[in-house]
Amino acid sequence: MFVIVTYDVGEKRVHKVCKKLKQYLMWTQNSVFEGEITKGKLVKCLTELEKIMDKREDSIYVYEVQNPNNIVKRVYGQEKSFEEMFL
Question: Which residues define the annotated binding site for Mg(2+)?
Fold first, then answer.
Protein backbone atom coordinates (compact mmCIF):
# COMPACT_ATOMS: atom_id res chain seq x y z
CA MET A 1 0.00 0.00 0.00
CA PHE A 2 1.05 3.61 -0.48
CA VAL A 3 0.94 5.88 2.58
CA ILE A 4 1.59 9.48 3.45
CA VAL A 5 2.57 10.11 7.07
CA THR A 6 2.64 13.54 8.68
CA TYR A 7 3.53 14.32 12.25
CA ASP A 8 3.48 17.12 14.77
CA VAL A 9 5.51 16.19 17.83
CA GLY A 10 7.29 17.98 20.62
CA GLU A 11 10.70 19.44 19.86
CA LYS A 12 12.47 16.84 22.01
CA ARG A 13 10.99 13.97 19.96
CA VAL A 14 11.22 15.33 16.39
CA HIS A 15 14.61 13.76 15.64
CA LYS A 16 13.59 10.35 17.01
CA VAL A 17 10.33 10.29 15.02
CA CYS A 18 12.09 11.40 11.84
CA LYS A 19 14.82 8.80 12.28
CA LYS A 20 12.27 6.04 12.85
CA LEU A 21 10.19 6.97 9.80
CA LYS A 22 13.32 7.06 7.61
CA GLN A 23 13.67 3.34 8.30
CA TYR A 24 10.36 2.67 6.56
CA LEU A 25 9.47 5.52 4.19
CA MET A 26 10.94 8.29 2.08
CA TRP A 27 11.27 11.73 3.60
CA THR A 28 9.70 14.26 1.24
CA GLN A 29 9.36 17.38 3.36
CA ASN A 30 9.69 18.49 6.97
CA SER A 31 7.31 16.30 8.98
CA VAL A 32 6.12 14.42 5.85
CA PHE A 33 7.02 10.92 4.69
CA GLU A 34 5.56 8.81 1.91
CA GLY A 35 6.05 5.52 0.13
CA GLU A 36 5.08 1.93 -0.43
CA ILE A 37 4.88 -0.20 2.70
CA THR A 38 3.28 -3.48 3.67
CA LYS A 39 0.49 -3.53 6.23
CA GLY A 40 2.72 -5.51 8.60
CA LYS A 41 5.60 -3.04 8.36
CA LEU A 42 3.22 -0.13 8.83
CA VAL A 43 1.85 -1.69 12.02
CA LYS A 44 5.40 -2.28 13.27
CA CYS A 45 6.41 1.29 12.44
CA LEU A 46 3.38 2.77 14.21
CA THR A 47 3.98 0.57 17.27
CA GLU A 48 7.55 1.87 17.46
CA LEU A 49 6.38 5.46 17.01
CA GLU A 50 3.85 5.11 19.83
CA LYS A 51 6.74 4.32 22.18
CA ILE A 52 8.42 7.60 21.21
CA MET A 53 5.48 9.98 21.15
CA ASP A 54 3.65 11.67 24.01
CA LYS A 55 -0.01 10.94 23.29
CA ARG A 56 -1.09 14.00 25.29
CA GLU A 57 0.78 16.40 22.98
CA ASP A 58 1.84 14.67 19.77
CA SER A 59 -0.04 13.58 16.68
CA ILE A 60 0.77 11.38 13.72
CA TYR A 61 -1.53 11.24 10.69
CA VAL A 62 -1.44 8.29 8.30
CA TYR A 63 -3.15 8.59 4.93
CA GLU A 64 -3.56 5.18 3.29
CA VAL A 65 -3.92 5.39 -0.47
CA GLN A 66 -5.88 2.43 -1.78
CA ASN A 67 -5.01 3.04 -5.42
CA PRO A 68 -1.72 4.92 -5.87
CA ASN A 69 -2.34 5.11 -9.63
CA ASN A 70 -4.93 7.80 -8.89
CA ILE A 71 -2.49 10.11 -7.08
CA VAL A 72 -1.40 13.24 -8.84
CA LYS A 73 1.55 14.79 -7.03
CA ARG A 74 2.38 18.39 -7.86
CA VAL A 75 5.36 20.12 -6.34
CA TYR A 76 5.37 23.92 -6.29
CA GLY A 77 8.74 25.47 -5.66
CA GLN A 78 11.87 23.42 -5.09
CA GLU A 79 11.46 19.65 -4.95
CA LYS A 80 13.91 17.94 -2.64
CA SER A 81 16.13 15.43 -4.39
CA PHE A 82 17.34 12.16 -2.90
CA GLU A 83 20.87 13.57 -2.60
CA GLU A 84 19.68 16.65 -0.70
CA MET A 85 17.79 14.53 1.79
CA PHE A 86 20.24 11.72 2.44
CA LEU A 87 23.76 12.64 1.30
Answer: 8
